[in-house]
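Researcher: Structure for this, please.
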Amino acid sequence: MQIVEDGPYRVRGALPLHTQEIVRNEEGRSWSYRQGRAYPVKDGTMLCRCGHSRKKPFCDGSHKTAGVDLAETASFEPMLQEAEEIDGPRYSLTDNERYCAFARFCDNGQRIWNEVRIEGEEHARLAIYMAHQCPAGRLLVWDRSTGNPVEEPLTASLSLIQDPGAGVSGPLVLRGGVRVQSASGESYEVRNRQALCRCGASSNKPFCDGSHASTKFRDGLE
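Model: Predicted structure, token format:
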């Protein structure tokens, strides 16, 4: 994925693109995803980054007149450099809140920051599950006995998040180690899960910071 200076995202390669709806459980908390409509993508496809295109998810040039500041402000440093670490009996959790995409999977049970601290397989499984559902990859669970992250291999894909629980549309989620290249030519850290801003309001561009929730961003794709 390539960032066009003051413009859209340019897809490199032919990655599958779908809408993905956040599904809530009986407690009303974010729990899983439901895959929706597929969109045609080829190498060079331009995806809206400013939030104002009338042809979402594709760019229609609206960024030129929308008055949205699309300058990149995110750090190129590894996410772990600024992450908080929480140790539990078997696993540790690292969390870089700057990358929160407000998907709220982390709020299940006693919340991930507490679940990782509690003894027992059930709590460990829930903490790992919540981390894997986080679209931004801000949360990583680590096996303390090996020092390795508890991660699952993901197929490279693009998802347009829909969040009916909050009544908004969310970020563009990249899974499976998709590289994000800055308009400067430098690459951001390659990660298993990343969430890119689609509303144009993030203060951590190109990454999502949850601003779509406060701005009530709707893409009309549901």
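Researcher: Any notable elements?
Model: The helical segments are 112-115, 121-133, 211-214. The chain has a mean pLDDT of 98.
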